[in-house]
Amino acid sequence: MAQVEREQLSVVMFPWLAHGHITPYLELARRLTSAANHGDLDVTVHLVSTPANLASLAHRQTDRIRFVPLHLPALPDLPPALHTTKHLPPRLMPVLKRACDLAAPRFGALLDDLRPDVLLYDFLQPWAPLEAAARGVPAAHLSTCSAAATSFFAHLLGASGDRVFPCEAMRLGTPEEEAKYTELFVLREDPGALVSERDRLLLSLARSSGFVAVKTCAEIERPYMDYLSELLGGKEIVPVGPLLVDDSGGGDTAGTERVMRWLDGQEPGSVVLASFGSEYFMSEQQIAEMARGLDLSGVPFVWVLRFPKTSAGGEDDDDDGHAGAARALPRGFAPTRGLVLEGWAPQRRILSHGACGAFLTHCGWSSVMESLAAGVPMVALPLHIDQPLGANLAADLGAAARVPQERFGEFRAEDVASAVRAVVRGEEGKALMRRAGELREVVARNDADGAMVGELVRRMARLCGKEQRVAVPN
């Protein structure tokens, strides 16, 4: 019998130049290329990013996942080592966006070489679908943020007209307060920008062909998915699941084992993990307040600290990998009940350890999902951009308590200590733990559901006329 010829679905992925965006794109690529329910269609992925991002990911390439370097044009103060948000000083973020925008013709040339069937792109590159359309390639927006945050910002940025955001739990205050927040944290315009900050998200959503894919699951975010679809004139929102990543094989192995041995010696549910994302760097004042708050709480802790690169070439100035924390921590701070880690930490492994009883977090979307996946309640301390929406959603789900803040990014040590104690040792924490355990089952079920990835494949195949090759689920 003649063997059935298998057709290829070639997908180019173009996430924003940030670890928190590349990681879920890469996890989706793994699932797209390894899923067995695509019928006679084999999926191959080309993931495009800068050499600064791809260097540490080389081991993640496979026969069906290939990395394609995008070289950004040279701009002052932005050497190639800083063509990534990892360790990027905040003052250079507008410069990185400008350099990425200027790379549009080079990205188009890559599409000419790769000749993909479909492009999946991120929200900061609304020009990417135009480059694809010029070559007859359909493009779909893939959001690594929650549907709640995406719909909220689309609402605030003008897609809603005069309507009030329908989900009260997500609101950040009065309409005036929300507008001020948007101006302060989302729309910091760069005079030299090629694309207005106000336009990036709305254009990316509007230019998505047929549907918008979101890293989420309907069991948690159905109301926000529905409202986002409404804002986009009925465009369908396709969930692709939590896209949880196994972090057991990355980073500093010796450091990881040291942390795990320390956790082994702690009482069950007694430790708080404090970590605030891979792209946020606390100020000296914030570090001092956090150090005092953790100390005052009396709760054992693992605190992950991160710092920007400070040298012109983008290299770390610290010789031993710990000098940044040593310089930044308050004089006299000697954590007898905890560990201070600098840089990377095995977040999922720590959260899944029996000693971990709470997660003091900025509530970035991946961190919220990882906390829910571990069944660990959150102490929410949002610091910028979409994090207040993640904190609101986690609290509305019944899995988080808030650290009081008069303004986002400002907090008192006493409030940190009180919130941590309440979640780890108080009655409130017991209720949050029960609810987190319930949500753990929801997240696990959705992360294991290959049907969502299969549905995304069918949608992409439909865009490029290869739908007949995709298996239809029973």
Task: Record keyword descriptors for this entry.
474 residues, 6-stranded parallel beta sheet, 18 helices, 13 strands, globular, EC 2.4.1.-, transferase
Could you give the topology of this structure?
Blueprint: E1 7-14, H1 19-34, E2 41-49, H2 51-54, E3 65-69, H3 93-102, H4 104-114, E4 118-121, H5 128-133, E5 139-143, H6 147-159, H7 175-186, H8 197-206, E6 211-214, H9 218-231, E7 236-239, H10 253-264, E8 271-275, H11 284-297, E9 301-305, H12 323-328, E10 338-342, H13 347-352, E11 356-361, H14 365-374, E12 378-380, H15 387-396, E13 400-402, H16 413-425, H17 427-447, H18 450-463
Major sheet summary line? 7 strands, parallel
Number of helices: 18
Largest sheet, spatial ordering of strands: 3-2-1-4-5-6-7
Question: What is the helix fraction of residues, given as a range?
Answer: 40-55%
Number of strands: 13
Structural shape = globular
Q: Which regions are unreliable across 5 or more consecutive residues at pLDDT < 50?
A: 316-322
The share of residues in extended strands comes to: 5-15%
**Structural class by SSE content:** alpha/beta
Overall mean pLDDT stands at 88
Report Rg.
22 Å
Family: Belongs to the UDP-glycosyltransferase family.
Pfam family, one: UDPGT
GO biological process, one term: carbohydrate derivative biosynthetic process
Keywords: Glycosyltransferase, Transferase
Question: What would you say this structure looks like, in words?
Answer:
Helix content is 43%, strand content 14%. It has 474 residues and is an alpha/beta fold. The protein has a seven-stranded parallel sheet with strand order 3-2-1-4-5-6-7, sandwiched between helices. Strands 10-9-8-11-12-13 form a six-stranded parallel sheet, with helices on both faces. Helix 11 (284-297) links the parallel strand 8 (271-275) and strand 9 (301-305). It starts with 6 loop residues before the first strand and ends in an 11-residue tail after the last helix. The relative contact order is 0.13. Mean pLDDT is 88; it is low at 316-322.
